[in-house]
Design a protein that fits this description.
The chain is α/β, with parallel strands linked by helices and 165 residues long. It has a single domain, classed as 3-Layer(aba) Sandwich (Glutaredoxin), CATH 3.40.30. The chain has helices spanning 35-39, 55-74, 88-98, 113-117, and strands spanning 21-26, 29-34, 43-49, 79-84, 105-108, 121-124, 130-133, 136-141, 144-150. The strands form three sheets. A five-stranded mixed sheet has the order 5-4-3-8-9. The chain has a two-stranded antiparallel ribbon with strand order 1-2. A two-stranded antiparallel ribbon has the order 6-7. Strand 8 (136-141) and strand 9 (144-150) form a beta hairpin. It starts with 20 loop residues before the first strand and ends in a 15-residue tail after the last strand. 38% of the residues are buried.
């Protein structure tokens, strides 16, 4: 698995998504796939979140995407994917609570390889999150960024809200 270098330090429009490992649980088993395999074919909405079970992610940011995912799929997107810097087991538990209909796919960037390679890792020590993902929204087609928005503060949801897709 190669790691794509991001020339500007942060992923931007036209860049290829980094080919770093992401993980999920499938039937209780850990499945690790390179990001390129997850997003290499098709058009996706990718939501990056600082952490599962955190108040802003759980109450403010993700509910809009859970509600809007069926319309996004109907409009031609191949999937709506949430990436968080938590382990796959935590994400599986959180996804059952926040999205019981399984409209979104949840992928773990628990080692922050994707976040760091994309220039989307940040620190939030005041929230005891340590290093985590920035709050971001990416529209990707065939593994390349069509649109990207990144919040300046992890507790804000302005440029990454579901209503903006």
């Amino acid at each position: 698995m190669g790691h794509s270098a991001i020339p500007s330090g942060r992923l931007s429009r036209g860049d290829r998504l980094p080919d770093t490992p992401l993980a999920a649980l499938d039937g209780g088993e850990l499945v690790v796939k390179p990001a390129w395999q997850a997003f290499g074919r098709g058009r996706f909405v990718i939501i990056g979140l600082p952490g599962a079970f955190t108040p802003v992610c759980t109450r403010v940011h993700l509910p809009g995407f859970v509600a809007k995912a069926p319309a996004l799929i109907a409009s031609g997107f191949d999937g709506v994917v949430c990436i968080a810097a938590n382990d796959p087991w935590t994400l599986a538990e959180w996804s059952q609570r926040i999205d019981p209909a399984k409209t979104l796919r949840f992928l773990s960037d628990g080692n922050l390889e994707f976040g760091r390679a994309a220039g989307l890792a940040t620190r939030a020590p005041q929230l005891f999150l340590g290093e985590c993902l920035s709050r971001f929204l990416i529209v990707a087609k065939d593994g390349f960024v069509e649109k990207i928005a990144v919040e300046s503060v992890v507790t804000e949801v302005s440029c990454t809200a579901a209503v903006l897709i």
